[in-house]
Known about the structure:
By secondary structure, chain A is an all-alpha fold.
Amino acid sequence: MSQGLFVHAAxxxxxxxxxxxxxxxxxxxxxxxxxxxxxxGYTFLVLGFASHTxxxxxxxxxxxxxYQAFSIASASMFEALNFFxxxxxxxxxxxxxxxxxxxFSTFVxxxxxxxxxxxxxxxxxxxGLLSPRQLVPALKSPxxxxxxxxxxxxxxAFMLSAAFAFYFLLRHKYGIGIKNxxxxxxxxxxxxxxxxxxxxxxxFLTFGIITGSIWADTAxxxxxxxxxxxxxxxxxxxxxxxxxHSRLSWGWKGSRTAIFALVGFLSVIIxxxxxxxxxxxxxxxxxHSYM
Amino acid sequence: xxxxxxxxxDRAGLVHPEDxxxxxxxxxxxxxxxxxxxxxxxGARGPIAWLNHHLTSLPSAVVVLCVIAxxxxxxxxxxxxxxxxxxxGQYGEMKAKVLTRLGFTDIYHTIYFNLLLFWLGLxxxxxxxxxxxxxxxxxxxxxxKIRASTIEKMEHSHAVNVKDEAAALDRFEQRLRKKGFxxxxxxxxxxxxxxxxxxxxxxxxALVALHLGLIVVLAGALxxxxxxxxxxxxxxDGETKVxxxxxxxxxxxxxxxxxxxxxxxxxxxxxxxSAKPKLIRSLVRNIEPMVFTxxxxxxxxxxxxxxxxxxxxxxPEKWIKFESYIVHQFTSHFKVTRxxxxxxxxxxxxxxxxxxxxxxxxxxxxxxxxxxxxxxDGDTFSQVVxxxxxxxxxxxGLRSVGRFGAATSPFFFRIDEIKGGPLHEGREITGxxxxxxSISIFSSENxxxxxxxxIKNDHPLMLxxxxxxxxxxxxxxxxxxxxxxxxxxxxxxxxxxLVLGTLGALFMxxxxxxxxxxxxxxxxxxxxxxxxxxxxxxxxxxxxx
Lengths: 291, 545
C-alpha cells in the first residue's frame, strides 16, 4: 500500500480529532457529553497516530532495505515534518490522560495537522513523499537516530508549552477565554503546565545539541562550526536557559514566562524550518539544510 | 491567582545564597522583597566591585546572552568567511566594506564576539565558585537560627500548639528523619528552640555540576583553540605527502611521491592550515612540530542503486537512471606514519583514523574524467576535466574558462557530477557502475544555463560541430581533514557533567524545613525548590496535625 495513503489517513483522523476536541471545548457543558465527544477526539487522535506510525515504520523499512541499516525517517523536509508531528501526537497521547489537559487539545492537535499539510505542500516535498531520500554518507550513522529523536522530542515538548502559553496570554492579557477551560483551569495551573513542558523539553534539547556536536566531530572533524542550524539551536538553548533562570532565580511567573515560552518556540520554528529558508535566501552554505 | 506583581521566590525556584543569608539572619525580611541581584556586597565601590557585581549578576549574564544571540543571528544571515569579492558580488562594494569592517563576515572569530564568550565563561566560573561555596555551607554548616516571625512570612508555613516543647521537638525531628531529612537543632538563649531540616542536597550539587559542566566545555574549547591544530590535505591515488603540523604556525605538506610530485612546483611547501594569532603563537612557540607521512593507496567512491528512485512526471529515462545511482560512501585506503609507527585503515565518512592524537577524516573529494571530443571533420582529441570546472571546446582542445566572459566559443560546459565505481547492494559490493556524467551547457554571451544532459560511454552529447563523449576511467583525489584537539576529552567530560547536572537540577527537589518553638507555639516553614509541591501534606505528617 502507498505510504502516502497512511499520511493522508493520519491527517484526516487528526482533522476529525480536532473537530471533536473543538466542539468539546467550545460548546459542550454537560460532563457526560464531554466525555463522549472528548473521548471521540482522543480516539481519532490515537487512530491518526496509528496510521502515522504505519507510515513511519514503512519508511524505516525502506531505509532498511536500501541501506541494511536502521534509520528513522527524517532525511527530508517531508519526513522531518511528519516525524515532528508524530512526536507531538505521541507525547500528547501520553500526557493528556496524566495531566488531564483534554480541554486544551484543540490547541495541540492543530500542530500535527498543519505540519502534515505543510509537508505535502511543496513540490520538492511531494517528490519526497513518493520515495525515501537518499542518505548522504554523513547521515549513515547511529547518531542520526539519537540526535534527531532527542531534538524532535524537545521541539514537541516546547510546542506543547507554547500552546498553553498562547492560551494563557489570550486569557490573561486580552481577556479572551473559553468557558470550559476557565472553569477547570486557573491561570496558576496553566502556568505550571507551561513550565513543566519546558523542563521536560530542555534536557532533550541539551542532549540533542550535545549528540549533534559529537556526531559532527565524527563526521566533519569539528564539534562546533557555527553553521546556521547549530547557531539557531544554541540561540534556542539560550532562550530556554534564560527562561529557566528567570523562573527559578527571579521567580518570574505568568504572562512574562508565557511570552518567554512563545519566544522560545519561535526560535524552535526558526531552527527547524526558518534556517532552511534563510540559508536559501541569503545564499549561505548549511550542511544541515533539508532543501 | 497569577497577577502582575513584583517577583516572588517561586516554590519551584532555586535557593539563592541571599535567601539563605536573609532567612537565617536576625533581621526581618519579607521573602518577596529579597534582592534578586548579584552576590556583590552592597555599597562596594571601584572597578573590582563593579566587576564582581556584573560577573555575578544574573541580569548582566542575560544581557550578555542576548547580545551573543543577536550577533550569532547576524552570522546566520551573512555568509561567513568568504572572499571580499564574493561579498561585493552579493551586496555591492559599499555594503561589503561596511560588513567586513564591522566583522560581520567572520563574526564568530571577531575579538568582540570572543570577548563576550570569555565574559560568559568568566561569569560562569565566578558564579559557580560562589555557588559551590554556598552549597558546601548548606551541606556541612547550615545556619539554624531563625525567628518565628520570619517563618510566618514564608510561602508555606504552618503553626501548631504543643504542650511539651522538648518532646514535640523530638517528635518532629524523628518524623523528619524518617522522611529523609537531615536535622540540626539549636536552643536559643531566650528559650526558643530551632530545628532546621533539609533533604535533596543532591539537587544543589547538581546545580553546581551543571554550571561546572559549562565551564569544563569552555575550558576544553579554549585548550583546543590554543594547542589544537587543523587543516585540509588533498592526496591523489598512489600519492605520498609529508605533513608538518604545529599548534601555532601554519601547517604545510610536501608531495614526495606520485600525484603531482613531478609537476612544476612539486616538492614545494603547500599550506594546509593557517597560522594562529600572535598571542597564541607566542604561547606555543616551544612546542615541537609533528611530522607525519601520509600514503593514499586507493580512493574509491561506491554507489547504491535506489530501490525507489524519486521520479518526476515526464523525466527522461536517462535521467531516471542517472538519479537512481547515489553515493554509498567514499573511502580512502590510507596509511599514516610518524616516528616509525604506522597506522593503516580504510577511512570513510564517520570513520576517521587517529595516530598520536592527530585525527584524519574523510572530508570530500575531487573527481575528473577523460572527455573525448569528436569534431564533424573527424578529428578526435581528449583531455581530463575535473568536476565543477567550466570549460569550452575549441579547435585546439578543451580550455578551462574561469567565468563565462572568458569563453571564446558560443557556449561553455561544466561537469556537475561524475558517477561510476563499485556498486553496492545492501552491504555487499555486487557489481560495477559504468561511468556517466551530468553536464550543464551555458551561453557564453550571458552565462545563462541552456540545458543539461547525461553522457555515458555509449551515449555522447551530440552537438552540431562536435560530439562530447567520456572515457572509461575516472580519476579521483581524496580530501582529508586532519585535526588535533587536546581539549576534546574535556569538552566531552563537560557535556556529560552538563547533562547529568541538568537532569538533577530540573527533576530533583531540595527542601528546607524551618521550625521554631516559642512557648507552646510551634511554627514550621517550608522552602521547596524543584518540582516538589507537597507542603501541606508534609506539615501534617510532621506535626500530626
